[in-house]
Amino acid sequence: MIRAYTSKDKEELVALLRLNTPQYFDESEEADFIEYLDNRLEDYFVVEDNREIIGSGGINYFPESKLACISWDMVHPNFQGRGVGKQLTLHRIEHIKKNPAINLIVVRTTQLVYKFYEKMGFDLEKTEKDFWAKGFDLYQMQMTLEK
């Protein structure tokens, strides 16, 4: 089940981030994630299985640029490779498509998972070494929405 984030989910989401550190996130990113949840959140969704949060991901909007960014995607390690990330990404793409002011979706990810977004239809736009932290390169990708 995918539902909207509530502040009651924060502790469980920080724990989920820690489960994905250091494989997919650097320790230094935890403070950024908490800042995001507290102050930069627009749309954020959680995936639940038996009342346990097993995935999450957000959307931020930049209507002046006609774009939306999907961000802070993570899936519980025990559920990776089972379609949770795909389901969550498709959910957000469909959510974004309902906004007629948006015609481009951007995701800023790492070399570790950019192939996942490539399979979802995103095109690689640029890379930058050690962008997020040492060993975590930026892979900026985009998808143009058909209107």
Protein architecture, described:
The protein has a single domain (2-144), classed as Aminopeptidase (3-Layer(aba) Sandwich). The protein is 29% helix and 38% strand. It is built from 4 helices and 7 strands, in the order E-H-H-E-E-E-H-E-H-E-E. It has helices at residues 10-19, 29-40, 84-97, 114-119, and strands at residues 2-4, 43-49, 52-62, 67-75, 104-109, 123-133, 136-144. Helix 1 runs antiparallel to helix 2 (29-40). It is globular, with a radius of gyration of 15 Å. The two termini are 28 Å apart. The mean pLDDT is 95.
What's the alpha carbon Rg, rounded to whole Å? 15 Å
* Helix and strand element order: EHHEEEHEHEE
Characterize the main sheet: 7 strands, mixed
How helical, in percent, are the residues? 25-40%
CATH-defined superfamily: Gcn5-related N-acetyltransferase (GNAT)
Q: DSSP strand (E) fraction?
A: 35-45%
Helical stretch tally? 4
Mean pLDDT: 95
Biggest β-sheet: strands ordered side by side in the sheet: 1-2-3-4-5-7-6
CATH architecture: 3-Layer(aba) Sandwich
Number of β-strand runs: 7
**CATH class category:** Alpha Beta
Low-confidence stretches: none
Q: Which structural class fits the helix and strand makeup?
A: alpha+beta
Q: Which oligomeric form is depicted?
A: single chain
CATH topology type: Aminopeptidase
Number of domains: 1
**Shape label:** globular
Protein name: N-acetyltransferase
Pfam families: Acetyltransf_1
Keywords: Transferase
Organism: Pontibacter diazotrophicus
